[in-house]
Design goal:
Alpha-D-Glucose-1,6-Bisphosphate, Chain A, domain 4, alpha+beta, homeobox, eight-stranded antiparallel sheet, 23% strand, transcription regulation, transcription, DNA-binding
């Protein structure tokens, strides 16, 4: 091939391989069909891993090395083209600014001031003039800040004060009671831990994270919005609502089937023709659309989605933090932090405008769009993602249900690489795609519907729970366990403590916190977490974890004693979703332990969360006479997720899903003892929790016939 051959065309049409002697290149020209398939795949996943390359090569009858080199060449070509486009845009912008400067200079040279008869600008000392302006501006800013603080305090909202020495309680969700003076699993104590003793340097070792609560940077009092800011926000929101309505109501060619997993994605070429957008990063675009029927009337659903606290509660397995910053007449500015339930992945942060508009009777649209133009005292580090206009259309149905069409459209900074075992989940769109939102919304609304029933449904087995109020209190406690468990998985700092497998495991991450708040265990809590991949379908793993006949073989809480179910309440249309009370046989023989468990499974995965309680706490929980928020409880559990790779059958209920499972196991252990800790004790506790979670994972893998390297 001639050396002067055009690089862009050759990269698209052929790849080259060196021969074994290293002296020759063999060029392979690709067919139009192969190029079209590769191009479509590149748009969705520019960095395929080895398995994706292998599968794509089998489909296109190409070697894996050919696929690998094609994507390398294509990324290089795309980078060069982007740089050329950026340079051309910068040259054009530079020329425009230069012409504007020349016009302004010419205007300054000829300006006069007839109304006041003032001197020509060149006749005054410009330097002194600008110095006076700067001084006046600084004075006005200082006065504005003083007034803002005064108004803020007058309204009764003191500035939040951060105490760096005291951690830090999570949500009011945690522990049970016990008198064991040593290391305990999921139980609480009356010993008080002094936070300052935890901050001595000898404990800040590289493999332990003394965690702060997973929350955004402190939200200080934001100055009032100017009229100009309000106008800009309104214009941005109007444009977002219009775009969301257009995208939701448009089908092909705007929406096409993904070449990876056949879900609906936005065709970016058609999108850019219709909507002019500036990319905020060298990005990967994530887009998806799903339709679901929700068992809740449309007006109540709209109100829940617009209430920031209810939004965070409804999607607690996705939204780790949500807060309203400013409220306008027709929209609001809010902060939200999203996460996938594993400490291996950093959360995604958004500052978004949210607006609701009723289009007609029984039809609403809610639109979100990222917005960073307001001067509030809230700083992001380096944004990793930007939400293009996204949202959902809610249509009332005659049976009290709602039809929801959900659309997500996000730019993701491709330089922020996901952990290897979660890469397919994120690149495939299942991580934060519309499917996850609609599946969660459907499951939570089913739970709300069953919560409000006035009598025990036929699917329930009340057992030791005698009243409907006791049933509701137990469901409240289960929901609180799920929220707390989701909270602890959003570890703010993570470090590998030990490695179990070079291929399928992430090692053990350990975080430490001190709790002193009522409703939580008082003392030092060690949380250990590990994520791994299993070559089994999620439903198969879920059924195994729920199987009471083998529970005692892997769960240390059972003390090797068989477990029986003493109460069960179904929380969804799928009878596998339930909250139940378990009793090890050792408790029936005079022991003092019960297990409260809440679990669910949907199309994308599930959770099994459980916590030990003593008999008195269990009786208080089922009596219905105690507020669940006053019951201290410390949940541990397992998160089950699809790995994001395409499979023959996407639904879990059929039991034929061939995708693999991403498993995250997390334990919380309350550590009790003297208030002054020695390094030897800290080593002992962290070693104990590491051994506990590692041995549990080893047992589960052995019982499922899974081994390293599978």
């Amino acid at each position: 091939m001639a050396s002067g051959r055009d690089s862009s065309s050759s990269d698209e049409q052929e790849t080259s391989l060196y021969t074994s002697d290293g002296d020759k290149r063999i060029y392979h020209r690709h067919s139009n069909h192969q190029i079209q398939k590769l191009e479509a795949y590149f748009k969705e996943c520019p960095h395929p891993d080895d398995l994706q390359q292998l599968k794509l090569g089998e489909e296109l009858k190409l070697k894996q090395k050919q696929i690998k080199f094609w994507f390398q060449n294509k990324r290089t070509q795309a980078k060069v083209q982007n740089e050329k486009a950026d340079n051309a845009s910068l040259r054009t912008e530079n020329m425009k600014i230069r012409r504007e400067n020349e016009a302004m200079q010419e205007a300054l040279n000829t300006v006069t001031c007839p109304p006041c008869g003032g001197p020509h600008p060149e006749q005054v000392d410009r330097k002194l003039y600008f110095q006076n302006l700067s001084a006046n501006n600084a004075y006005l800013r200082e006065e504005r800040d003083k007034l803002s603080i005064l108004v803020y305090k007058t309204e009764g909202h003191p500035k939040p004060i951060v105490n760096a020495l005291a951690y830090l309680h999570g949500p009011s969700l945690h522990a049970s009671t016990s008198n064991n003076p040593h290391v305990t699993y999921g139980t609480s104590s009356n010993h008080l831990v002094e936070p300052p003793s935890l901050l001595r340097e000898l404990y800040l070792r590289e493999h332990i994270s003394f965690a702060q609560p997973p929350q955004p940077r402190q939200l200080q009092c934001s100055p009032p919005l100017s009229n100009m800011e309000k106008v800009m926000m309104t214009e941005a929101m109007v444009a977002a609502v219009t775009e969301v309505i257009t995208l939701i109501q448009t089908e092909e060619p705007m929406w096409i089937k993904s070449s990876i997993d056949s879900r609906l994605v936005i065709d970016q070429e058609n999108y850019e023709k219709k909507f002019t957008k500036n990319s905020y990063f060298k990005t990967r675009i994530e887009s998806s659309k799903e339709i679901a029927v929700i068992p809740l009337d449309a007006k109540n659903l709209v109100n829940m989605l617009l209430d920031t606290e209810k939004w965070a509660s409804l999607f607690s397995t996705i939204v780790s933090k949500a807060k309203t910053i400013h409220v306008l007449e027709s929209s609001k500015l809010m902060y939200e932090q999203l996460h996938i339930l594993s400490p291996l992945l950093p959360p995604r942060e958004f500052m978004i405008l949210r607006c609701c508009q009723q289009l007609e009777e029984g039809l609403w649209v809610i639109a979100d769009v990222s917005y960073h133009q307001v001067a509030f005292e809230f700083e992001f580090g380096t944004p990793a993602c930007y939400k293009r206009p996204s949202g959902f259309l809610i249509q009332a149905m005659p049976n009290g249900h709602s039809k929801v069409t959900w659309m997500e459209h996000v730019e993701v900074n491709d330089k922020v690489r996901a952990h290897r075992i979660y890469r397919d989940l994120l690149c495939g769109g299942f991580g934060y795609g519309a499917r996850r939102w609609t599946a969660t919304l459907e499951r939570m609304c089913e739970r709300l519907s069953l919560y409000s029933v006035s009598d025990f449904p036929t699917t329930d087995d009340p057992g030791v729970v005698k009243t409907i109020n006791g049933r509701r209190r137990l469901m409240d406690l289960g929901e609180r366990m799920l929220k707390n468990f989701a909270w602890i998985l959003n570890m703010p700092e993570k470090s590998d403590f030990s490695q179990q497998s070079a291929t399928n495991s992430s090692g053990v991450n350990i975080s430490v916190r001190v709790n002193k708040e009522a409703g939580q265990p008082v003392g030092l809590i060690v949380c250990a977490c590990s994520s791994l991949c299993l070559p089994l379908a999620p439903l198969q793993v879920y059924n195994f974890l729920k199987n009471l006949e083998v529970r005692h073989q892997w769960d240390v809480l059972c003390h090797a004693s068989p477990v029986t179910e003493v109460a069960r309440f179904v929380t969804g249309a799928n009878n596998k979703n339930c909250v139940n009370i378990l009793q090890p046989s050792s408790a029936a023989e005079g022991g003092d332990l019960m297990i409260i468990q809440d679990s669910f499974i949907d199309a994308l995965g599930g959770m099994v969360v459980y916590a030990p309680v003593d008999l008195s706490t269990a009786h208080a929980a089922v009596s219905g006479n105690v507020n669940p928020s006053d019951i201290p409880i410390l949940p541990s559990g397992v998160v089950i997720s699809r790995d994001g790779r395409p499979s023959a059958t996407a639904e879990l209920d059929g039991g034929c899903d061939n995708c693999k499972t991403l498993l995250t196991v997390a334990f919380q252990i309350l550590v009790t003892g003297p208030t002054i800790y020695e390094e030897l004790q800290m080593d002992k506790w962290t070693t104990s929790v590491d051994t506990l979670i590692s041995s549990t994972i080893t047992k589960v893998k052995a019982m499922l016939n899974c081994h390293d390297g599978q």
